[in-house]
From TrEMBL:
<keyword id="KW-0032">Aminotransferase</keyword>
<keyword id="KW-0663">Pyridoxal phosphate</keyword>
<dbReference type="GO" id="GO:0008483">
    <property type="term" value="F:transaminase activity"/>
</dbReference>
<feature type="domain" description="Aromatic amino acid beta-eliminating lyase/threonine aldolase">
    <location>
        <begin position="18"/>
        <end position="287"/>
    </location>
</feature>
<dbReference type="InterPro" id="IPR015422">
    <property type="entry name" value="PyrdxlP-dep_Trfase_small"/>
</dbReference>
<dbReference type="GO" id="GO:0006520">
    <property type="term" value="P:amino acid metabolic process"/>
</dbReference>
<dbReference type="InterPro" id="IPR015424">
    <property type="entry name" value="PyrdxlP-dep_Trfase"/>
</dbReference>
<protein>
    <submittedName>
        <fullName>Aminotransferase class I/II-fold pyridoxal phosphate-dependent enzyme</fullName>
    </submittedName>
</protein>
<keyword id="KW-0808">Transferase</keyword>
<dbReference type="InterPro" id="IPR015421">
    <property type="entry name" value="PyrdxlP-dep_Trfase_major"/>
</dbReference>
<dbReference type="GO" id="GO:0016829">
    <property type="term" value="F:lyase activity"/>
</dbReference>
<comment type="similarity">
    <text>Belongs to the threonine aldolase family.</text>
</comment>
<dbReference type="InterPro" id="IPR001597">
    <property type="entry name" value="ArAA_b-elim_lyase/Thr_aldolase"/>
</dbReference>
<dbReference type="Pfam" id="PF01212">
    <property type="entry name" value="Beta_elim_lyase"/>
</dbReference>
Amino acid sequence: MYSFKCDYSEGCHPRILKALAESNITQEEGYGKDSHTKNAISIIKKLVQNENVDIHLISGGTQTNLISISSFLRPHEACICVHSGHIAGPETGSIEYTGHKVITVDSTNGKITTDKIQQVLDFHRNEHFVKPKLVYISNSTEVGTVYTKEEMRNLSEFCKKKNLILYVDGARLGSALAIKESNLTLKDMCDFSDAFCIGGTKNGALIGEALVIKNQNLKEDFRYNIKQKGALLAKGRVLGIQFEELFKDNLYFDLANHANEMASILTKGLKEANCKFFVESKSNQIFPILSNENIKILQEKFSFNIWEKVDNKNSAIRLVTSWATTKEAVFEFIQELKQLVE
């Protein structure tokens, strides 16, 4: 059975495994003070074209969000995100556990808009309410859509005007930036946000997210927060080696491009089978609407998530491609579906 459930079903790209093996016996400092982590940080600073940012390598996405948001906010402050935002759902209330309310708003194709943020600010008008302080977005979003450069610029300008922190969850940032229509670069993400993370786990690494903090006010004692939350790895080299390799010879974006290409082929085949879509996506997450009967048959050969019930007879499913997805698997899925709908 082939899985289209997620983009972390496989281990890591062979180059990363080779780099880990080759450095295995060499001795290094712990807790992110090793030469590989220092080099990875230097490379990322060059890519974002900002030598003044702080960069921290953290093992997972939920940990990164939890540590960042709880560090950035004061006790009475809250964050704003769309209803489908990762911190509002599949993070087990981790942000609320640290004492910070997550205020959710309706989205436009999975993306937050300034008018919705303003509505929250208008409602939370004084000290009898929590104070909205941080805007959380993910790129790509939970439904596979991506922010354009203009949308990011507008959000950034709005947040600056309203004295809000703009934090970008980039668990699938590789896929988002690899889409030409978004017209965004790592430098843009740094310019437009106060802090953002570059996801490795879902783009060829075994584990790891690189958190980039630009806002000077958010940097102080951040390593204390990482340690207190149990995420300061003694063998931080494991993260450093992976990001060092990912950003060597453009591997990171090559892997993201492959995932997007497989998704594009899959989307083309689904359209040929006259599928409708829950949302239009050009990233590595696709949401076709299929009959419940056909979904059940396809599940005998493929693994995927049922995203949302559309009506009594049809549901939207989520298909996710990865850096390791093969054309053979994509074509097999398309062929099986076409046989069902013919």
